[in-house]
Write a structure and sequence with these properties.
single chain, six-stranded parallel sheet, mainly alpha, about 5% strand, about 60% helix
């Protein structure tokens, strides 16, 4: 039989990953294998417990670290809340483990209710985490009479259901009451030798698979589902590409600009009072508003995703090179070229330097929040986008101040280092730490519901923070803008050129690096867009509320959304450029069958 049509119209190619041997990695973990052991009886002299204790001794001898869970006090499933201390203890041990051993007596031809209760309290998923998936499992049973395999067969079914890698070997100890001496130690026998075999095999399989467990159980259906769920966690409603605020951000910012100019002209005294509320060159009102914008963004960053930084490194390398080695320097060059050369006769030298400073601060601040929107609109790999954003935020802690100071110095702008460092601490370090602490406190059980609820409550305040900041900045600049409205146009021109040029360079590089489109598009979007909230905050701290630098950063807000939407359109229209990177050409022309 010959298949002529190899098209796959129902396949979501953005989540499809061809399986290649290069995805397997050599064992690199150096810690001892972590094994959790469960037994299924509460009897004072429990033979399943004695087998588990004997197994634990063997595992320690083989170089493993072991934990034995005592089921005494564990409530029946659904009889108590999951916050019950014994339930939390069990779940924490499951998360800790890399492999498990289950041993139950056979009672009425089946495992005991005590054994089943422990397994039932272990959920298939805890938020975004599947606590048992990809972990190894050894199953054993003890019998009061002749040898039986009813329990181990049932445990195997449950292990498969829990998505565990159940090893081939198993143990069933017949007439267990005859196999232990008066000191509760197992006697030498074929049954003992079989337990040694099982534990030896478990350790080998654990060492072999633990560094590849994510790859081995990575499923297409779950990648499609998890991408949708991740976008919902960054305030995206199912079926919508962008929220009302994000979609019309330019309109809201434009309205805030008009309101700010009108209010600044009508009641300048109010803006003078707000401007006077400073401490250590930081305006208190603006600082509060910036925090309202930044803090919710930082809460969304899951730094645990950085463990995946070694997967598909080329996309991350592209993002980091564009963000930290290209964009800041190209932005500084364009600022100098336009305001010191092309527009030199139209802009006063001091004002030109201020505009350049604002552009530089935009260039040094990589996007943190809106990039999730751009990623979703280009059908990007949501989990990989999260890795890229998390790594960028960590680098920003250390690189933002030195790069900004260097470029500002090169362009002959005096840099108050103490204010610059204070700004980074105030608007990057503290929000990142506070966001991480808050996220950890709300996500102790890896259930994102509490985190999502808080983010939903904070979102309106974040919007208020952004629009209020714009109103204040343009209110402070009202007289200048009314006198010279062309200033906004002059600032927008180099910003537009910078944005489109950076995207072109990044997109071309992604094509040359043979990145898949679901990696390439978000990587280029991250490299192109800016963390304008941070740029605004630092510009105000360094140069003041009435400065040209602050004005330039706010113009960046005005320009970014329509430009990024046009780039999303372009990326989607050119998806076919990356087709050969998504799915390798099928070299099979015929399928033979009987």
């Amino acid at each position: 039989m010959e298949i002529k049509d190899f098209s796959l119209p129902n396949l979501d190619e953005s989540q499809f990953k061809p399986t290649v041997s290069e995805d397997l990695i050599a064992p690199k973990s150096t810690h001892k294998p972590r094994i959790l052991l469960l037994y299924g009886s509460l009897r004072k002299r429990s033979f399943s417990k004695l087998v588990i204790e004997e197994s634990a001794r063997l595992l320690v001898k083989m170089g493993a670290e072991v934990r034995i869970f005592n089921p005494e006090g564990l409530p029946l499933p659904d009889a108590e809340d999951p916050t019950h201390p014994k339930v939390e203890e069990l779940r924490e041990l499951v998360l800790w483990s890399e492999g498990q051993v289950w041993c139950s007596p056979e009672r009425h031809g089946s495992m005991t209710g005590i054994m089943k209760a422990q397994i039932d309290w272990i959920p298939l998923s805890m938020g975004a985490v599947r606590p048992t998936q990809g972990k190894t499992l050894a199953v054993m049973q003890v019998c009061g009479g002749s040898q039986s395999f009813n329990v181990v067969n049932q445990l195997r079914v449950l292990g498969r259901w829990m998505r565990m890698i159940t090893i081939p070997n198993q143990s069933a100890v017949a007439k267990a009451f005859l196999e232990f001496d008066d000191n509760d130690r197992m006697k030498p026998s074929g049954y003992y030798n079989r337990i040694v075999d099982v534990m030896e095999e478990l350790v080998k399989f654990t060492l072999l698979t633990r560094d590849n467990s994510d790859f081995l159980v990575d499923r297409y259906s779950e990648r499609v589902e998890s991408a949708e769920q991740l976008m919902q966690r960054v305030n995206q409603k199912k079926g919508k590409k962008m929220g009302l605020f994000e979609r019309y951000l330019t309109v809201w910012v434009g309205a805030a600009i008009i309101a700010g100019i009108m209010l600044g002209s009508a009641i300048p005294q109010l803006f003078s009072v707000v401007a006077s509320l400073e401490y250590a060159h930081v305006n208190i009102v603006i600082a509060v508003l910036i925090w309202l914008m930044i803090f919710p963004m930082m809460m969304q960053i899951d730094f645990s995703s950085i463990k995946d930084v070694g997967k598909k490194p080329k996309g991350l390398v592209l993002t980091l090179v564009i963000n930290w080695l290209v964009k800041p320097f190209s932005m500084a060059f364009l600022g100098w070229l336009f305001f010191k050369v092309f527009f030199a006769s139209w802009v006063e030298p001091e004002t030109a330097s201020q505009y350049i400073a604002g552009m530089i601060l935009l260039g040094v601040a990589p996007c943190t929040a809106m990039v999730f929107v751009w990623s979703q609109m280009t059908k990007g790999d949501a989990n990989y986008t999260l890795v890229q954003v998390s790594v960028n935020d960590l680098i920003m802690i250390f690189a933002f101040a030195p790069i900004a100071a260097f470029l500002l110095g090169v362009t002959d702008i005096t840099v108050p280092w103490d204010t610059l460092v204070l700004s980074v601490v105030l608007y990057v370090v503290i929000p990142l730490v506070a966001g991480a602490i808050t996220r950890k406190a709300l996500d102790k059980s890896n259930d994102h519901s509490r985190l999502d609820n808080l983010l939903a409550k904070l979102k309106p305040w974040s919007i208020i923070g952004l629009l209020s900041t714009v109103v204040l900045l343009f209110g402070f600049q009202a007289e200048t803008i009314i006198a010279k409205p062309e200033a906004i146009v002059l600032i927008a021109i180099p910003l537009l050129i910078q944005t489109y040029a950076i995207f072109a360079i990044a997109y071309w590089a992604a094509k040359r690096m043979k990145l898949a489109h679901n990696i390439a598009a978000p990587a280029c979007m991250i490299g192109t867009s800016n963390f304008f909230e941070l740029a605004v905050a630092v510009a105000i701290s360094l140069f003041g509320l009435h400065s040209g630098a602050a004005l330039a950063t706010v113009v960046g807000v005005l320009v970014e959304v329509p430009v990024m939407l046009s780039l999303v359109w372009f990326a989607n229209r050119t998806r076919h450029w990356f087709d050969e990177n998504e799915v390798p050409s099928n070299t099979i022309s015929k399928v033979h069958g009987e």
